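Hi C.,

You asked whether I'd gotten around to modeling the 404-residue construct. I have! Everything is below, sequence then structure, no commentary in between.
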Amino acid sequence: MHQYYFITVISFALLNICYVWSGAIQITSSNIDSVLSSHQVVFINFYANWCRFSQMLNPVYDQLADKVSNEYSEQGLVAIGKIDCDSESSISTKYHVNKYPTLKLFRHGILTKREYRGARQIDALYEFIRKQVESSIIKLSSRNDLTGLDSKKSYIIGHFNDEKSENYKTFSKVSNLLRDECHFAASTNLEEFQTERPTNDIIYYRSLQSLNKKDEFYIGLLNNHESFYVWSNEKCVPLVREITFENAEELTDEGLPFLILFHHVDDHQSVSLFEREVAKQLIHETSNINCLHADGAKFVHPLQHLGKTTADLPLIVIDSFRHMFLFPDIKQISVNGKLLQFVQDLHSGKLHQDFHNPPPSTKQTKIQDNVDSAVNGFLKSNPPESVFVRLTPSRQRYSFRDEL
């Protein structure tokens, strides 16, 4: 009888231990650093108990944690965590969380730029994690693999002695950190790639083949993670990104006003000119504004708000998420300082002030340049309302902090 009672108690205790330790890791200010530093991939659900969307996701998310734990038992590979933003407000503030639930991914302790915005079912979440754990490096076994790389993409390419070397480990770590921004390819076949790797390990950047540019070699220490990361980031992350309906929510959620070039889809010259002037004039403004380009035929609605059509392309516009402001004359974009002044006038409030109270000497010119005669009277005192603010995260999927 006593033996049966003892076994029952032990079994009950074990069941409770399993119950306590199942589900996502509860992350707090006391353990977040250790969790992030001890795992290659950490997926975190920033939730609020009062939020109905968080309440719906929480049981699914705990199921995800259990499934990932069962499938990926390798220590330090992946962790599924959750943070109560009401009790851990300092963490949510640090990571700029203002909607719930927000799902963020960390790689090697570094927050990635893109939040998870996919389906919130167990299969979709698990598939997302599976892809994050997989190596992002394209393996090059032969020269045919090298020449067969997609000519419409740019690549960071490395040729190494073996995968166990410190150089390759550094390459692999950086490829994980930049897997959303860069394409990485590597070989460890010494005989096949003697031309590319005559002596030591080597890394180079190959741009789009259509640009006809020579390969740019990395000349820093191959086992220096920080140096290689900075170099790769500069090569892969463009100063000017393309905005589409697929990534508009993600871009608006970054919270920076937009500087957008609207152009015809085949007008590569205007895009190149815009990129060059952004690099020349706005290199120190990239933390204050998002520089983007867009296919004007797909974004007809913003053009209509400005009294424009696709026949008026290319156009440069600032969308502040309150109003839209048109760059007066795109032919002046290469005049040194013009584009910079346009952006600075936004931040100083001058753009908004000038639309309400345009200087007398430029009043008629501004009206004629910026709008058709049918809407002159309206836009003279009312800059067009933002269109892209409507593409911000949906209240059908999130609760927002301002609802408290």
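If it helps when you're writing up: The two ends are 56 Å apart (CA to CA).

Thanks,
B.
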